[in-house]
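Hey, I was hoping to borrow your eyes for a little while. There's a protein on my desk that I can't quite get my head around. The fold is given in discrete form, as structure tokens running alongside the sequence. I'd be grateful if you could look everything over and explain what you see. Here's the protein in full, and shout if anything looks odd to you:
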Amino acid sequence: MKQRPWLGVMLALSSPLLILLALLVLLQRRGVDRIPALPALLIGMGLLVSSALLRRRRRRELLAALRHDGEL
């Protein structure tokens, strides 16, 4: 199967770019026109937070597994 290295890069940058786009829209528009940018901002922030929490959990599990292997 053909590997696509750019796909991983795009997925890694998608959440920060979504937040950046939402912030630009919030800065550009006034009043009620800002409301449509809020879902993109919240989704981008939610993706970043969930990714950080998942990474933290995986690292903690890996550390626990390494410590357990060292005891045997």
Observations:
- The helical segments are 5-28, 37-71.
- The chain has one domain: 5-71.
- The radius of gyration is 19 Å.
- Residues 37-71 form the longest helix (35 residues).
